[in-house]
Amino acid sequence: MSRNRYLALLGAWVCGLSSACHFERATPELHYSLNEKALADGSLLEDDPAGQVHLLGALELLFGTPSQPSYMVLPEWLDDDFDPTYLGQDSFSDEAWAELVERNREVFADQIAAIQAGDLEGVTKPRYCEDLWELWLGLLDDMPEEGPDGTYYEDDDGNPVTWKEEAVATFEGYYPTLAASAELYRQQCYHCHGASGGGDGSTSQYLNPRPRDYRYGTFKFTALNNKARPRHQDLMRVLEEGIYTTAMPSFRRFSDAQLSGLADYVRLLSIRGETEILMEADYDPDEGIHFDNLRENYELVVDRWRQAPEELIVYEGEVPHATPERIARGRDLYMRDNAANCVKCHGMTGRGDGESVKNDPESSTDDWGNKIVPRDLTTGVFRFGRRPIDLYRRIYAGINGTPMPAHYGMQIVDGEGVTRSLNEDDVWDLVFYARSLSVKEREVSLAQAPHGESHGEHEE
Amino acid sequence: MAQLKHLLFRLIVTALFLAVPILGVWTFVNADQMHVWFPEAVSSFGGEIDHLFSLILWMVGITFVATEVLLVLIILRYSRRDPSRSHYTHGSHVLEMVWTAVPALLLLFILFSQMGVWSEVKIAPPHEPSDPYSRENPLMRVYASQFDWRVRYPDEEGNFEGENVVESAYDIYVPVDTKVFFDLVSRDVLHSFYVPNFRLKQDAIPGMKVPVWFEAREVGDFDLICAELCGWGHYKMAGRVHVLPQDEYTAWLEGQREALYDNGSED
Fold it and tell me: pLDDT per residue over B45-59, tens digit each?
């Protein structure tokens, strides 16, 4: 071998090794953008690039950037002790908070054990919590001279709290900042839901149904009436359970605190999007954007979210059980066009193949302009829960953003020929009929795999 | 000088080839310390599967080391500068017979040693009349779909549809020290139910109910992952199997059944 060949070989090794050692994930910097669909939908702002830049700037003032998201807190909110960042935490009961702490104890078990054993070197950096790590490094810098068991501060009653206790409490009571949640969003949600929450991430184009566009504040799955904005618990439930048979999986592998933070961040994106749309609607080509209205619009949108919990649908009384009579009554309401008329979309057999699906394009398009089909009630898949109360809410209040209407209070002719409004009992009858359709399920088409035959094992 | 250079070249090449078996064996010896070895086996058949694995690992390992050492010796021996002419050979029938027959016998040996375990895990699970669950009366049904795991517990009559069916996403709860039978169903494409701690991996096949069983011998939480590339979200298709003491499991299921009739005030 000549010297040149040795040198070439050595060079290849060095190149290979150095690229392997210096490998770093490319982190794209995200930017919030304007809602192109809303602009194209007749806003005159579309033809005013300077105005668009101004609006983007104003929104940045209110909501920050994807790497530093934050709400602008209005002075009267301060008096009220209200901070939109923690809107969701208002709804945290003591039990919910205790559960969150319990999950944190599991997630950070190694770190907490190391602190308690006094092995500060052994505290490893947890994944997905940069902000917690910074708190920890700050604590290390702040250690009292007597060491971990020294007093860190005195609580309200004058009892000393040791540094060690404070360190453990920091891990146990971890709740992510908006910036940390935005980072988790970037890693887990961005590729479908997009940087501004427009449901326009790079993988969104391959999905059916499409990912939610948060910017209209319309969320399909809530436990609420009157198309209210979702409560923190509604967003949490979607994150925890996923939306069955869509690409939205369950994110239970993250801790309650992290999911809660994600819900906080989704709320920010949504409030930002709604404020933007209101500002665009206000636009006047002669006068430009009405920035005087910015504050008013912002407050209006935040108030919509604050009021949401009042709309929770609760059935006062004991949830009834299905009976053949109820199912028969439900069937009657389902089938008649002067009653609930479910048959129009869901079809005679409940397979989601009613008349309107073929003849009425309006009823097969959702608010975001996507084609949708009515639920096939025979599959036994009910999104956002299959408890009777979940289906009760679906029928009672309808599904936001879709042709599924609210049925409670609808004018119907009942089984006895009396015209009246649809009441709670009727809703239950419909629930039990809808559920009875799925009982047969696809049991018939599921062949039992023959015993005694090997089912291929794959190594993948 | 030229001779010295050649000797150096031979030694370097030999050392490089020798590094392969040394590194290979070293990796396995230290795997446990480097946390790249198997997680703890907690299912009833986990030990047997590990035993089969180490049996095959030893067989392959010995063959691997022997072959590599032979290779190194041949490189060292025949890389000398030798001015004499090459010697041609037409092969040896005896040698060929040996290197065909020995691996064939080894394969037969593996075949027979795994049959019992395979049958136990996949074909004829051990079953006693006292067992609360069986293939015909499974504890649960696991649904795989893009990209999550869902499990359904039947009502008291054993129906998987209807009023009192309990459904759970991501989290699967099972009792300890009990033969857990379940059906595995796919809602869309091929998935594979894989719990490393149980040494259990089974494909979910669209249109089929695949019977699966395991018996967890320890209480704890164990990871469930999808082991069949099922689409772009395959990597996030995870779940958690919670093995509970028998009474806690019963209490959990009872609680879930009661919660079905919640009036929603706690939501």
Answer: 999 999 999 999 999
**Does the structure's ipTM exceed the value 0.90?**
no
Report the domain count for chain A: 3
Write down the residue that tokens 């690039």 correspond to. Answer: A49
The answer to whether residue B101 is domain-embedded is yes
Query: Minimal Cα distance from B227: which residue of A?
Result: A460
Whether B102 and B211 map to the same domain: the answer is no
A387 near B CB under 8 A: yes
Which residues constitute the domain of residue B220?
140-259
| A185 shares a domain with A216 | yes
Contacts of A321 in chain B (CB under 8 A): 163, 261
Flag whether pLDDT at B60 surpasses 50.
yes
Which residues of chain A neighbour B124 with C-beta distances below 8 Å?
451-452
Q: How far apart are CA A177 and CA A190, in angstroms?
A: 18
Please, which pLDDT band fits residue A442 given cuts at 50, 70 and 90?
A: very low
CA A37 to chain centre: 21
Q: Chain B closest CA to A182's CA: distance in Å?
A: 19
Cβ contacts (< 8 Å) between A460 and chain B: which residues?
192, 227-229
pLDDT digits 0-9 by tens, A345-384: 999 989 988 888 888 877 788 888 888 889 999 888 888 9
CATH code, domain carrying A408: 1.10.760.10
User: Do you know the residue count of chain B?
Assistant: 267
Q: Average of pLDDT values for A210-230?
A: 94
Neighbour tally for A239: CB within 10 Å: 23
Tokens in use for B30?
Answer: 């230290």
Q: Is residue A200 located within the same domain as residue A346?
A: no
Same structural domain for residues A120 and A264? Answer: no
Choose among A237, A252, A458: nearest Cβ to B227.
Answer: A458
Q: Six-digit token pair at A136? A: 């920890």
pLDDT in tens, B122-157: 999 998 889 999 998 999 999 999 889 999 999 888
Listed residue (B20, B10, B5, B120) closest to B64, CA to CA: B20
